[in-house]
Amino acid sequence: MANDLKTEFIQLCKTLQGPHLVAKFQQFCGVRGTFPRKSSETSERELERFHNGACTNYCPDEGENGTEDGCNSDGPRQRKTTTEGSSPTHDDCINGLLNGTAAQISGAGETEGQNVNDYLASARDGGYAQERCTVDSPDHGRGMLCDPCKEGESLGGSAPSIVKPLRKNSLTDDGGQEFIIENKFLFYLFTFGTELGNEMFFIVFFPFLIWNVDAYVSRQLIVVWVWVLFLGQSTKDLIRWTRPASPPVVKVEVFYNSEYSMPSTHAMSGTAIPFSLFLLTYGRWQYPFVFGLGLALSWSILVCVSRVYMGMHSVLEVIAGFLYSALILAVIQPALEHIDSFYLTSRHAPLVIVVLHVSLGLLAFRLDSWSTSRGDTAQALGTGAGAALASHLNHLLGLAPDPPLSQLPFAPQPLSAALVSRSLQRLALGVAVLLATRAAMKALTIPLVCRAVGVASEDVRRARQHMEVELPYRYIVYGTVGFSCVFLVPLLFSYLDLS
Question: How many of the other CB atoms lie within 10 Å of CB of 285?
Answer without folding.
Answer: 16
